Amino acid sequence: MASLSLHLSSTTPFVPRATPLHLRTRTQKTFSIRSQSAPVLSQDDLKKLAADKAVESVKSGMVLGLGTGSTAAFVVDKLGQLLSTGQLSNIIGIPTSKRTQEQAASLNIPLTTLDLHPHIDLAIDGADEVDPNLDLVKGRGGALLREKMVEAASSSFIVVADDSKLVSGLGGSGLAMPVEVVQFCWKYNLVRLEGLFKELGCEAKLRLAGDGSEKPYVTDNGNYIVDLYFKNPIKDGFAAGKEISAMEGVVEHGLFLGMATSVIIAGKTGVEIMTK
């Protein structure tokens, strides 16, 4: 990866979440680390830059939520490296997918479950969209249910992403906002979900396995995913999430609202750290 000369214009200690999610203020503070040169970085370079910055918040002895996806994979790689060199010790991870579980196990990262460790010190994961309030769309990797369970149980939740994930409103990228549904009568719920957001020009599609066949994608939990594509951003994420969750047969949705305590965005000019 091209080297960066970084200048820290402002710093702040990372403070674990101390108040319930619904009581937290929504005032955003932004801190920037800007490069003095302008190296050309690939998207993977940017993801790795954000991941490395997030791992700086990890301390020995922590119980960690390990995210899923291409950016989170860089986080897991870095944790494995720091454990192998002795720079970190006594870390226990709770993976959010079978894919992450296999990656972490291959790096000799000790693993556990929410059943055994219901309190998590810190979760680090990627995001598919990040809006100005630090609300998120997640789950294009198919792990939204386990991700939400783990990250909701965490005192702090750091999101890592590149600047292509920034949107002015959730659904604004035009890419998928996933909803995990049971297999039973999935088309019934697909039609209802599309109708729920008709005024936003929503199109609902069953996610396919991606192996060239017409077989549906099946989550680690044995469910299907209905992907919602919006022509216009969602006006009220909390109201939308509540209406989606009220549908029988819906397991979970990809709106992660009021959960992130910090978002690390890597862009062409450096790293931006956004906090509430």
UniProtKB/TrEMBL annotation:
Key words, A-Z: Isomerase
InterPro entries referenced in this protein's UniProt entry, alphabetically: NagB/RpiA_transferase-like (IPR037171), Ribose-5P_isomerase (IPR050262), Ribose5P_isomerase_typA_subgr (IPR020672), Ribose5P_isomerase_type_A (IPR004788)
Top EC class, one word: isomerase
* Catalysed reactions, as listed in the record: aldehydo-D-ribose 5-phosphate = D-ribulose 5-phosphate
Is 4Fe-4S tagged as a keyword? Answer: no
Q: Does the keyword tRNA-binding apply?
A: no
Q: What is its EC number?
A: 5.3.1.6
What pathway does the UniProt record associate with this protein?
Answer: Carbohydrate degradation; pentose phosphate pathway; D-ribose 5-phosphate from D-ribulose 5-phosphate (non-oxidative stage): step 1/1
Q: What CDD domains is this protein classified in?
A: RPI_A
Q: Which SUPFAM superfamilies match?
A: D-ribose-5-phosphate isomerase (RpiA), lid domain, NagB/RpiA/CoA transferase-like
Instruction: Give the family, as the similarity comment puts it.
Output: Belongs to the ribose 5-phosphate isomerase family.
Official protein name in the record: ribose-5-phosphate isomerase
Higher taxonomy: Eukaryota, Viridiplantae, Streptophyta, Embryophyta, Tracheophyta
